[in-house]
């Protein structure tokens, strides 16, 4: 009587175990990027897909990632964006100058 396991490639067992355990782990950010860039190997791809069948959170993450990227790609910098950036940078410069002046003044006081 055959046990049915003698002809089985040990790699299949390992793979099966990896898939069984891996499908309960959330998809890493790195794999999300890999999924988008189509750079996952076959095992990673299988893991990601089997997890996505179980997990609404990761399904949402994949969807959100895709939508955010599409929105960013379609986004055009407006004149109002430029004004905001200029204003913020201006404020940073003022603060930096104040800080440098204060530091400079302090340095002079402390010099012997
Ligand atoms: Zn998940």
Can you tell me about this structure?
The chain is mainly alpha-helical and 112 residues long. The protein has two domains: 8-75, no CATH class; 76-112. It is 77% helix and 0% strand. The protein contains five helices and no strands. It is elongated. Residues 26-27, 51, 55, 57-58 line the site of zinc ion.
Q: Which percent bin holds the helix content?
A: over 70%
Overall average residue pLDDT:
85
Q: List segments where confidence is low: pLDDT < 50 over at least 5 consecutive residues.
A: none
Task: Kindly report the oligomeric state of this protein.
Answer: single chain
Structural class: mainly alpha
- Give the percentage of residues in beta strands: under 5%
Structural domain count: 2
Give the termini distance in whole angstroms. 96 Å
Rg, nearest Å: 27 Å
Order of helices and strands: HHHHH
Ligand inventory reads: zinc ion
Q: Enumerate how many helices there are, as a single number.
A: 5
In total, the number of strands is 0
Shape assignment: elongated
| Biggest sheet layout | none
Give a brief rundown of this model:
By secondary structure, the chain is mainly α. 77% of the residues lie in helices and 0% in strands.
Features:
112 residues, 2 domains, binds zinc ion
Could you outline the blueprint of secondary structure elements for this entry?
Elements: H1 10-22, H2 29-37, H3 42-54, H4 56-74, H5 79-110
Helix pairs in contact: 1-3
Bound molecules: zinc ion.
């Amino acid at each position: 009587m055959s046990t049915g396991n003698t002809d089985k490639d040990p790699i299949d067992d390992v793979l099966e175990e990896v898939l069984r355990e891996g499908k309960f782990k959330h998809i890493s950010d790195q794999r999300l990027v890999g999924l988008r860039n189509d750079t996952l190997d076959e095992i990673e791809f299988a893991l990601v897909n089997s997890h996505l069948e179980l997990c609404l959170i990761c399904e949402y993450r994949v969807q959100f990632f895709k939508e955010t990227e599409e929105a960013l790609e379609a986004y055009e910098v407006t004149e109002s964006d430029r004004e905001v950036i200029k204003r913020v940078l201006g404020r940073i410069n003022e603060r930096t100058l104040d800080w440098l002046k204060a530091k400079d003044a302090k340095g002079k006081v402390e010099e012997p």
